[in-house]
Design goal:
The complex is a heterodimer of chains A (165) and B (293).
Chain A (H helix, E strand, L loop, with lengths): L15 H18 L1 H11 L1 H6 L4 H19 L1 H8 L10 H11 L4 H21 L7 H27 L1
Helix pairs in contact in A: 1-2, 1-7, 2-4, 6-7, 7-8
Chain B lengths: L1 H28 L7 H19 L2 H24 L5 H24 L20 H5 L3 H18 L1 H11 L1 H6 L4 H27 L10 H11 L4 H20 L8 H16 L18
Helix pairs in contact in B: 1-6, 1-9, 1-10, 1-11, 2-3, 2-4, 2-9, 2-10, 3-4, 3-9, 6-7, 7-9, 10-11, 10-12, 11-12
Chain lengths: 165, 293
């Protein structure tokens, strides 16, 4: 990555960042511009209605879970093939759980997820910067507080929007 | 003699699972997903260690642990009930929160990022792990008694009936005058206190708190809740089964018969099998995870 952009010199960032951004774009295109993506969203909203509309719900679930496994598997790529170049036990250290939170904070939208992931990454990296002043564990607390706040406010905000309409 | 050591080992491993699993049963029966068990346990272990260290009495430690667990569980219940937050997300967040908080306060209180100094536990200075150290530990009879007590509470008292009604059909419960949120808050607090006692057992047994010492035990307890089909006795049996598998693995360590990682997989593999409907159908409470409108 530092070969492409000199400013990245010395950071753990690598080409996989580009792959991640491209993946988000492709998933966005799949979800919102293809027949398969439409079937997926219809199934998620109301499986019975989708079935009635001619969607094979069982097949959509197979397809979706396979795809989600592929995408989550790619998540391990960065650490193993882009950063350390070896497998280390427990390297993911809760990244999968944090991923669920990122998906919710990003409102289940590819673009939102990219922004949410960047926000959480900023908090994580920021912990190293403030470590001299406050123990860096405060970062885990901060991330959890963000998740709880977002999860708690989403239904509330949605209800307020509905009322104002 | 080897057999007695195996039984003692099983009991030692099962007790924290037992506390957390019956807590999980109460919470899930009221309709609140118990994903935060791991967090309550870790929080309980830390508060228990802290209270025991400063007071010099493990009993005060238990009280501190239960208080910590109740606070965490009420925070979870508050966001899930009052703000209708997604229970899975908040449950995961509670676990992350507690990992961060315990490490943070470990640094502040004991100036260490790994573990606390030695704390007073039960059974004097007996080395833990022996059969003798089990006899002096009141948490073992308390844990076994708690299973029966929670079963009695759920199936034989008005409160238990209400908990089950709220978990199955909150709207119907509301229509007969049950205050659904109040029942859920109470169930959550109870589950937090029970799981925290399980965590405190770990800290008091090892005479110290170490960072992330629960190491996924809350998730194993949740697996036991599901494997036990949301019944206190069957969940307790599942705990003993999982613990026996672990104890067997420890006893077989010299023999190198089975890789330990395979034994660690057993609870989760069995739970997937149970959920897939191989051994009868596992039917969760109907309103599990659903907020009340």
């Amino acid at each position: 990555m530092s070969a492409l952009i000199p400013a990245f010199h010395g950071s753990a960032a690598n080409v996989i960042i580009l792959l991640a951004a491209a993946t988000a774009a492709v998933v966005g295109w799949y979800l919102f511009s293809t027949r398969g993506g439409f079937e997926l969203r219809a199934t998620g909203l109301q499986p019975e209605a989708a079935e009635y509309g001619g969607v094979n719900v069982g097949r959509v679930w197979w397809r979706t879970l396979t795809l989600s496994g592929v995408l989550a598997g790619l998540g391990g790529l960065n650490f193993v093939l882009g950063y350390k170049y070896y497998y280390e036990e427990g390297f993911a250290s809760g990244a999968g759980f944090l991923g669920i939170a990122v998906a919710i904070v990003g409102r289940n939208h590819p673009l939102g997820v990219v922004l949410a992931a960047l926000a959480f990454a900023t908090i994580s990296q920021g912990g190293l910067a403030v470590n001299a002043v406050v123990p860096k564990q405060i970062v885990d607390v901060l991330q959890a507080v963000v998740i709880i706040a977002v999860a708690a406010s989403v239904p509330e905000v949605r209800r307020m929007l509905r009322r104002s309409r | 003699m080897i057999f007695i050591a195996f039984l003692a080992q099983t009991l030692r491993i099962a007790i924290p699972y037992l506390f957390a699993a019956i807590g999980g049963v109460v919470s899930e029966r009221s309709g609140l997903i118990a994903l935060g068990l791991e967090g309550y346990m870790l929080g309980g272990a830390f508060c228990g260690a802290l209270a025991s260290y400063y007071s010099g009495s493990p009993w005060v430690g238990l009280l501190g642990a239960a208080t910590g667990g109740v606070v965490l569980a009420l925070l979870y219940a508050f966001t899930a009930i009052r703000y209708r937050a997604d229970q899975v997300v908040v449950g995961i967040a509670i676990n992350l929160l507690v990992i961060g908080l315990t490490r943070f306060f470990l640094r502040l209180a004991f100036h260490s990022s790994a573990n606390s100094p030695r704390i007073p536990g039960f059974g004097g200075d007996q080395p833990s792990g022996g059969v003798i150290s089990l006899v002096g530990n009141p948490l073992i009879p308390i844990g076994i008694l708690a299973v029966a007590l929670v079963a009695w509470l759920l199936y034989r008292t008005p409160f238990g009936l209400r908990v089950r009604a709220v978990g199955e059909h909150p709207a119907a419960a509301t229509s007969v005058g049950i205050r659904v949120p109040r029942i859920r808050y109470t169930a959550a607090a109870l589950s937090g206190a029970l799981a925290a006692l399980g965590g405190a057992y770990l800290a008091l047994d090892q005479h110290l708190f170490s960072a992330e010492m629960t190491a996924g035990r809350g998730f194993i307890a949740l697996a036991a809740v599901i494997f036990g089909r949301w019944d206190p006795f069957r969940a307790a049996l599942a705990c003993v089964l999982f613990a026996a598998a672990e104890a067997l693995q420890i006893q077989l360590q010299g023999a190198q018969a089975i890789p330990s990682q395979f034994v660690e997989m057993i609870p989760y593999a069995l739970t997937i099998v149970a959920l897939a409907g191989v051994v009868g159908r596992a039917v969760p409470p109907a309103a599990l995870g659903r907020p009340v409108e």
